[in-house]
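Hey,
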Amino acid sequence: MELTGKQRAALRSLCNTLQPVLYIGKEGVTDGTVKEAYDALEARELIKCSLNDAAPLTAREACSLLCEKLGAEPVQCIGRKFSIYRRNEKEPKLQF
């Protein structure tokens, strides 16, 4: 699902109040990280992630890698934080 500009803007506004729920450390994006992100996306649809200072990836690299593995869409990437979105087809939480 490709997000339109209006949808992405609406999701970005929702991201402002979110706290990071996924932290990527010195190991980078591991299978455990992907599993945690998958579970968080199933529960929330929109999550904010943060990179540790020792992470081997940039935020953009980690975002694109996670989106590729999860079938999600990148929403926003600022500094060491990024947000991703994937619609839950069974029980949609966000309406826009």
